[in-house]
Amino acid sequence: MNNVIDQNGNKSLTLVLYVLYICAIFTAGILAIVALIINYIKRPDVKGTLYESHFTWQIHTFWWYLFWNIIAFIPFGFLFFTGDNPELFAGTAVGASSFCIAVIIISWIWIVYRAILGLVRWRENKPMYENNIQ
Length: 134
Description:
This protein is mostly helical. The protein has one domain (4-132). The protein has helices spanning 4-23, 30-46, 51-73, 86-123.
């Protein structure tokens, strides 16, 4: 483990990153990208500390959040196959929009849940993964 000064700095940084991930849902993900970059840059500094698991948790959260947001927009690709049929286009657009909105809302709830769970574990000075189970 690192010394106490490093631990306090790492603890504060971990908190800031959780806040950035929560705020990211209001900034079209821009703050999540900032947090991810910081996670990767500062990851060597937290190696061997309990905050390493928090950084891993945050990084995994970002990539899964991005994955689900990409999945949310895939149905819009079917609009290209509707041809000149306006009814088919309208139905596909409504279906794609409904799917997209549902997935995005669920992913917003999920990222907030993951951040809150991380904050709870952070506050308790516990790693995110017990027994190195990820």
